[in-house]
Amino acid sequence: MVKVFGRPKSLTDARFTYCPGCHHGILTRIIAQAIDELEIAERTVTIAPVGCAVFAYLWYKCDAVQASHGRASAVATGLKRANPNLVVISYQGDGDFASIGTAESIHAANRGENITVIFVNNQVYGMTGGEMAPTTLVGQRTTTTPDGRDPAYFGYPIRFSELIATLDAPVYVTRQALYDTRRIMDAEKAIKKAIRYQVEGKGYSLVEVLTTCPTNWHMSPLEANKHVAEVVTKAFPLGDMVDRGK
Ligand SMILES: Cc1ncc(C[n+]2csc(CCOP(=O)(O)OP(=O)(O)O)c2C)c(N)n1
Ligand code: SF4
């Protein structure tokens, strides 16, 4: 019998705390798979953020550091500079990366730190009850925009990866999604490439991943997948923005 699917070796047996249908779980698994394939678990350090991925340090058979609100890219910088042999993966939600940590995020990218950032864009602050994030779509109802996001009051959604892509230093900036098998396979490749570039010493890489939050979007998991495919990708187009590592 040929085994075609199994639990990545670098995932622990801990049960995820994510809601049913949330893409955080798929993404967490994909990262473990890349760590396995690159055979780097012994020297990988993951940075656990605030938000729904707050327990990320429980899920990988790797070292991990918990960073406070928005500071994950700064913590990753310090670790990598102190020990360049480490492979440092910073996992951050849109509230964490593109709002609370705006300064740390932009400057780590601008310095070209040799780290990999996974930026999880679910258009809300999931853990704290579904407040507006910088990525919340125009018209989207959240707990802090109950009538829908009105740009006149709240501005427009920020395409943060596009901003990072204007900088000279980043080696790889891409946006991926997880709403179907094809997109999951593309995201797997992108995450593996981003980490491989770091292993090869090429510099800063950013993988934005469009994910769902069925709980705070008040949708079923299937409706949430459809929403990403049909609505969210219009505001946040998929694909590579920068690839200087080839
Ligand atoms: C009531 C309250 N306000 C603010 C915080 C601080 N805080 C922790 S997680 C978080 C939001 C994280 O959102 P995001 O980074 O988008 O991650 P997600 O939960 O969506 O995965 C905030 C503001 C808190 N813990 N509790
Ligand atoms: S609140 Fe949203 S982002 Fe957080 S685990 Fe639940 S579905 Fe996922």
Please provide a written account of the structure.
With 246 residues, the protein is of the alpha/beta class. Helices cover 37% and strands 17% of the residues. The protein has nine helices and nine strands. The chain has a seven-stranded mixed sheet with strand order 2-1-3-4-8-7-9, with helices on both faces. A two-stranded antiparallel ribbon has the order 5-6. β7, α7 and β8 form a beta-alpha-beta unit. The model has no long low-confidence stretch (mean pLDDT 97). Bound molecules: thiamine diphosphate (TPP) and iron/sulfur cluster. The site of iron/sulfur cluster (SF4) has 12 residues, from α8.
Summed up:
The protein has 246 residues and is α/β, with parallel strands linked by helices. The chain contains nine helices and nine strands. Helix 1 packs across helix 7 (181-199).
Low-confidence runs: none
The distinct bound ligands, ions and cofactors come out as: thiamine diphosphate, iron/sulfur cluster
Radius of gyration: 17 Å
Number of H/I helices? 9
Strand segment tally: 9
Overall pLDDT score: 97
Compute the separation of the termini in Å. Answer: 38 Å
Largest sheet: 7 strands, mixed
Can you give the helix content as a percent range?
A: 25-40%
What sequence of helices (H) and strands (E) makes up the elements? HEEHEHHEEEHHEHEHHE
Beta-strand content bin = 15-25%
- Major β-sheet strand ordering: 2-1-3-4-8-7-9
Structural class: alpha/beta
What shape does the CA trace take? globular
